[in-house]
Give the backbone structure.
Amino acid sequence: MDGKSRTASGMRPTGPLHLGHYFGVLKNWIALQESTHAYFFVADWHALTSDFADTSGLRRNIAEMVKDWAGAGLDPEKCVIFRQSAVKEHGELSLLLSMITPVSWLTRNPAYKEQQQQISNKDLGNAGFLCYPVLMAADILTYMPREVPVGEDQLPHLELTREIARRFNALYGEIFPEPRALLTPAAKCPGLDGRKMSKSYGNGIFLSDSFADIEDKVRGMFTDQARMRRSDPGNPDVCNLFPYHVLLTEDPVREDIRLGCATAALGCVDCKKIFLARLRDFLAPLQERRAALERRQGAVEDILAAGNARARAFARGTLERAREKMGL
């Protein structure tokens, strides 16, 4: 044994990935593949919990997500990249865990209540959506991780996973660790219009965008709405663009931008030009890796087939132990 711990995390294939996905999730995953035995899955069953009414784009979204992951730097030689629904053990373990999970645990989940209230254009009254956290618990516990990378908004889900693991262990004997949260540092990535960056809002800069498209988007990007004229001083702390300089621009230049904005020595057009230059440097290697994958016929299928097999091999052992403990 090499002493590395295991971790597992997934992402729903609901559309192209944007800069928010990279800085909020993928950057951390890329680091984890170096330090842990990392299992990263395309959460296609989870996508069905809210998008079951139209699955016409699901297979394409799966392939595009894997391309984005590989372009961003996930390496199938360093981590396990697989499709959730191809590892049936996730589904059976979810069923077993649902037997011991009180419905009250699910209905009190803050994320469940919030999404029921906020998402009015989808039918979220299905059992799959209610049981989403149990499936998530199975996704995680299958790989027996000690830590799981999550954002603060996912902490209630992880706490429920810990409670389910604790209850299983108390009922049947110790199997599952209670995974701790490995908090992903928050990365502020506002959308082009100032709202949260989202594919549903059409306000994102996507990892697969051509640079010509990105230039058009950035030219129309909101900045400091109170800065009406070039001669008006700006406020970087409320500017929609400055958070991207925090992520992409080196310290000395970033501080010059802050000072130039605050004193009106630097205009928003100039600020956008600097951002575009940094963004081009950042995206070029990602898009080159993505293009190389696209040139290899069947490359995505090969990555998933190999990852599915590796994930299945580990998952089989976990499920067998769980079944035995439950007397099956």
In short: The mean pLDDT is 91. Residues 268-295 form the longest helix (28 residues). Strands lie at 6-11, 37-42, 80-83, 147-150, 180-183. Residues 101 and 164 are 7 Å apart (CA to CA).
